Amino acid sequence: MKLQPVVLAGGSGTRLWPLSREYYPKPLLPLVADRPLIQEAVCRLDGLPELAPPILVCNEAHRFLVAEQLRQLRRTGGLILLEPAGRNTAPALAIAAHAACAGGEDVVLAVMPADHVILNAPAFQAAVREATVLAQEGRLATFGVVPMGAETGYGYIRKGTAIRAARDGLPGAYAVAEFVEKPDRATAEAYLDSGEYLWNSGIFVMRAARWLEELETHRPDIARAARAAYEQGSRDEDFYRVDAASFAACPGDSIDYAVMEKTAAAAVVPLDAGWSDIGSWPALWDVCPRDASGNVVQGDVMTEQVTNSLMISQHRLLAAVGVTDLMIVETADAVLVAHRDHAQQVKGIVQQIKDQGREEHKVHRKVYRPWGAYEGICTGPRFQVKLITVNPGASLSLQMHHHRAEHWIVVTGTARVTRDEEVFMLTENQSTYIPLGTRHRLENPGTISLEIIEVQSGSYLGEDDIVRFEDKYKRC
User: Fold this and answer.
1) Which of 110, 102, 50, 58 is nearest to 80 (CA)?
2) DSSP assignments along 35-87, one per residue
3) Neighbours of 287 (CB within 10 A)
């Protein structure tokens, strides 16, 4: 029976602001390794037998960013399921299970969040092999992380009777006695002392057909809506668009609440593999290599008498002197300074940003598009300057603006420019002018990235002043 990776890539990770943003969320960040978290998740099962191409479930707004992750990995044959709205993990897994069974063959699903860190891949794969046997027997397996301390930020799973003993490098398995919510400190310490409790990882292994059966039993409303959303959806190249109306009508619920806490078939496999959900800056500090002073340093950072701190600089020199237990994160448009004990309150800052109508919770200064990216360089009254990067073979939409004109200067590469009825080429150091109200398109016909400086001028410079006439990415 094939093993089908399912990577759930929803959520925005607001507690990791300012690196994680609504339109560039945590799974896309290379927080621990050189690769983004979502790429690590996709590759986590590599080497296991009968491995199917991955299924990824993501928000429609992130579809091209997620597709780019697969392209960078040179993964072909995968499928990206698009959620028109967030409905939590149970509906997401339901549409993934329908997609996995579309060929008429049952498979074992290995369901992994896209934003977790697992440092010991062989130990994780051993746990997956154990859970796969359970799944083939009809059980719904989850992984319980062997606790490293009395953690109050995680839910717990209490182990029941043993199903399989640990042996030959495999961790064994237990029936699930109960799921419990995040405890207070005293309760967490009691859980740790008892040896009966594991952290709830949010990772699952089960047969696709068994998941759909159990969902039908315990949450038939979700099962019906998810089935309709999938069956009435349509394939769009590498994407599968579920029916928006049916999915919008689907109740939201988690895998745990919808099924795992109710089923008699739940099993838990202990996992001791350097797992973390990187739910906060201190959690990142916990899993990253630290220097002799206990500091995690990324980027251009200088310190003097600094201890037990995390310092990340993306765009300029960050200098810290005589501090301890701080989380300092610098990006092009925001700087966060937080004490480790208060880092969970970052989401309160994000809420303030939203309440003030600002944009720093949504996007970075560099904004990614399916054709490439643009980055703001300078802004003033009635003008702004951007660096635009167009990937080889990519093109912007045929569009026009009501309120702004644009000057384009080619820095690197070759540009094909459409300006009303004209079509012409520009090379390095050449420029052109796009008057207000003119239909225009920018394309990169070459094999290297095209970079241009765009100078916009006009009475309104917002991104919503775009009228699209044609778009290969179907954003019209």
Assistant:
1) 58
2) S-HHHHHHHTTTTSTTBPPPEEEEEGGGHHHHHHHHHHHT--S-EEEEESS--
3) 16
118 near 112, Cβ under 8 Å? Answer: no
Structure tokens given for 62: 């992130």
CB 86 within 8 A of CB 8: no
State the DSSP H helix or E strand holding residue 292, giving kind and residue range, or none if neither.
Answer: none
SS3 per-residue string spanning 404-457: EEEEEEEEECCEEEEECCEEEEECCCCEEEECCCCCEEEECCCCCCEEEEEEEE
Neighbours of 331 (CB within 10 A): 20
Position 267, amino acid: A
Tokens of 208: 């696709």
With a cut of 70, say whether residue 29 has pLDDT above it.
yes
* Mean pLDDT estimate for the chain: 95
pLDDT digit string, tens, across residues 108-134: 999 999 999 999 999 999 999 999 999
Give bridge partners of residue 301 from the DSSP assignment. Answer: 318
Alpha helix segments (H runs only) across 78-199: 89-100, 121-136, 185-194
pLDDT-derived band of residue 103, with 50, 70 and 90 as boundaries?
A: confident
Nearest C-alpha neighbor of 60 from the set 95, 101, 102: 95
- Percent helix, strand, coil in the chain, to 5, is 25, 35, 40
Question: 218 vs 48, 211, 263, CA distance in Å?
Answer: 32, 11, 8
Other CB atoms within 10 A of residue 293 CB? 13
Structure tokens of 294?
Answer: 């206990």
pLDDT, position 476: 63
**For 52-102, what is each residue's pLDDT tens digit?**
999 999 998 899 999 999 999 998 889 999 999 999 999 999 999 999 999
**Can you point out the beta strands (E) in 344-403?**
366-369, 372-380, 383-390, 398-400
Measured between alpha carbons, how far is 327 from 343 in angstroms, rounded to an integer? 8
